[in-house]
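Example complex used in Figure S2.
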Amino acid sequence: MLDVSIRKQLDHFELDVSFTAYNEIIVLAGSSGAGKTSILQAIAGLNEPDSGMITLNGKSFFDGKRNSLPTRSRNIGYLFQDYALFPHMTVERNIHYGLHKQTTATTGFIIEQLLTVLGISHLLDKYPHQISGGEKQRVALARALATEPDLLLLDEPLSALDEETREECQNELLRLHELWKIPFLIVTHSRLEAEKLGDRVLHLKKGLLVNDSRGTMKETPVH
Amino acid sequence: MDLSPLLLSIKVAVISTTIVFVFGVFFAHLFEKRLFWGKSIVESLFLLPLVLPPTVVGFGLLILFGKKGWIGNWLLETFDIQIVFTWTAAVLASVVVSFPLMYQSAAAAFDSLDNKLGDAARTMGASEWRVFRTITFPLAWPGLLAGLVLSFARGLGEFGATLMLAGYIPGKTDTIPMAIYFAVEAGKMEKATFWVVIITALGFSTILWLNWWSKRNLRRFASEKR
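Predicted assembly (449 residues):
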C-alpha cells in the first residue's frame, strides 16, 4: 500500500495532494504543468517535498523531517517519459542493470517471463538507437520491472507512440499489472488512456486533486 | 642529435595530463548542478590561467613554490624536496596552465548529459559511485577525451611559466619549447628548426585527430537521434 500526503511549492502554485494506492492502477490525469511528474519524482526520491509523508508497505520514504530514504533504497520501478534507456548499453545490459551480480533462479524466471510477455527476446543484442519507439517502451518496462519493484511509476509511458502501438502497449500494461500485483501509478494527459487503464483516476489541476473518478479517495484538499 | 628534450617533454606532458585529468574531472563533476556561494568565483579562478600571461602564472608559482615560498619552503624543510629548477617544476607549470582546458571540457561534457539517465540508474538501486562509473563517465568520455588531448598538447607546448619556475638546465629541464628558445638565442638555427618541425607535427596531428574524433561522435549522435 502506497500512502502519499505531500506539499511542495512549485514555480507557479503549490502542490498539495493526498492519496492512497493499493495494488491497483491509479492514473494521475491533468493538463501538462499540473504537477503530475513532480508527484512521481517525489515518490521516487528524485525531488523532495516541502512537507508531508510518503510510505510504501509500511516503509517510510519521506517523513517531512528532511529525513528521506535515498532513491536507490526505495525499490521502485520508474518508467521515464522518453524511457531513459542507457544509449551505450545493449538492451540486455539495460534490463540487467538493476540486478545483483548473482542472478537467482527466480530473477532468471522473471526476466524470461518479462521478455516473453513483452515480446522483446529478439532485441537483446541491439542498442537503443537501433530499435523502434514501441520496442524502447517495452524494453524500458522490462528494465523497470526486472528489479522486482514494490511500486511502478510511469510518466506518460505511451505518449511517444503511434495509435496502434499505443493500444498494444496499453493492453500489455494491463496484463503486466495482472501478473505483478503491485500499485501502478501512471501519469497521462490523455482522458481516453486514463479511462482505459485506471482502476481509479485522480484529476490534478494546478497542484490540487480536483476529483476522483471513483470517489473512493481520502479527503481531497480543496482550497 | 640529443633527443632528451622530446622525451622530457613527453614525460612532463603525460604526468601533468594525468594529474589534470583526475582533478579536472573531479571538480567538474563535483561542481556540476551544485550551487553554492562563490561558485562563479572559484570557477573564474580555475579558468584564470587561460587568460593570464604565462609569466604571471610562473611568478605566482614562484611565490608559492620557490625555496622561500609558502609551500616551497615547507616542502624543503619537511621533506627536503625542492621544486624549482627541477623537471617537477615543469610538471607543476603544465598542470596549472592546462587545468582550465580540462575543467572546461569536462564541465561541458557533464552538462550535456541527460540527467534522467542517472536518475533511471538510481531507481534501479545504483549508488552514486556506480552511476558515475557506468553512466556518467562512459557517456561523457568523448568530451573528456577532447579535454585530455587539449591538456596534453598544452602541456607539451608550455614555455613561459616553465621558464620562470624550472629555468633552463640542459639535460634536466630542457623541454622542446625551451630547447627552441635557447637554440635561437645561441644562433643554432638548425637545431631550433628541427624542434620546431617536431613540435608542429605533434600539435598538428593532435588537432587533426581531435577534429576527426569529434566529427565521428557528432555523426554517431545524429544517428541516435534518428
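The CA atoms of residues 98 and 151 of chain B lie 5 Å apart. Residues 4-174 of chain B form a domain with the MetI-like fold fold (CATH 1.10.3720.10).
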